[in-house]
Amino acid sequence: MSQITKTLLLASSSVFLAFALIIFPKDAFEASIRGLDMWWEVVFPSLLPFFITAELLLSFGVVRFLGVLLEPVMRPLFKVPGVGSFAWTMGMASGYPTGAKISVRLREENQLSQIEAERLVSFTNASSPLFIFVAVSVGFFNDAKLGLLLAACHYIGNALVGVCMRFYGRNETISKPKIKKEKVSLRRAFRVMHETRLKDPRPLGEIMGDAVLNSIKTLVMVGGFIILFSVLTKLLFLIEITPLVAILVESVFQIINLPPELSLPFIAGLFEITIGANMISKELVDPFLANIIIVSFILGFNGFSVQAQVASIISKTDIRFFPYFFARILHGVIASLLTIILYYPLYVNRQVFDPRDLPVSNTTQEETYQSILDSFSQFGPVITVTFIGIAVLITLRRINRNKVL
């Protein structure tokens, strides 16, 4: 694509979006409020502790400690250094875009080569267990047992994507950080951690302040993308573009024996996972397996909203976006196939034969998950406002101190 064509395409898209906002101001406002509510009630308070913790662990050398110990595991499986294990585990525990943020930090510190960073980004951005079990399984489908099936397909599929992506870039010649090969030992891991901490000249207060500011800055960016794609999804539906594309998707679904009624929710899920999963849960189709296959795909695909967040995070480095995009399609396909394979052993048979899944225990479990959702709705905004206020105070204090100096 030439630069002139790209300029015309970007300009026309922006003008088109502006006109759509003018024509449908009320609907755009309602969609933005929906995205804002989701961000400040759930996304911000749930991700902030993980982001701050990740920043502190990187600064204090704990990530290098884990990297030395897990090098024999990560290198053969995924062809990335041991420090990649931190991005992988944190990405699974807290959800996207944590894996991308940590991968960028590791690349900036030259702990990863460009190719290794691209491999790592491709499989470290996953949905969090909180989102899969609480929001999707209980919140949308009102079925706590469904969480195990979705989580198993999602995380196993994610690991398989990592194994597949180890072959990416093997023929490319690129400079790698010089790593002295030594025998793995706990003593060496402690030494590396200590040396990493000593290399950081910042005092403890400044390290903690930077961790808070960097985390909040990233989460504000994430919130902007959530609101933007919430509005964009609504506008595309109102101007009849989404239904038009749904007609084409229906023909593909008929070929692969999926109900055509799921085409519109599927397209919505390609843009924003939460909206798509909610729409899929409201479609009563037979067989129910079809609903779960589509949900598994969009969970693995991440949605364009999350992909835009990742693209923004990696844009300041030499990490390319296409490997991540390809891995998202691959993850969606693998997760869908795993859903077909594991649907009966992990969902249908569990419902019939597992003695622990009695109606009483199931009700208690759903009440527990619902209480988690209610607590986020109640305390989430307070946490969001409080930490944004703390970030403002830290910034103002540093500005005043620089003026004095």
Automatic annotation (TrEMBL):
Transmembrane segments: 47-70, 120-141, 147-168, 287-304, 325-346, 376-396
Pfam families: Gate (PF07670)
UniProt-listed InterPro entries: Gate_dom, Spore_IM_YlbJ
Keyword check for Transcription: no
This protein's record includes keyword Lipid metabolism: no
All copies of domain Nucleoside transporter/FeoB GTPase Gate, residue ranges: 42-140
Keyword list, A-Z: Membrane, Transmembrane, Transmembrane helix
Protein name as catalogued: Sporulation integral membrane protein YlbJ
Signal peptide: none
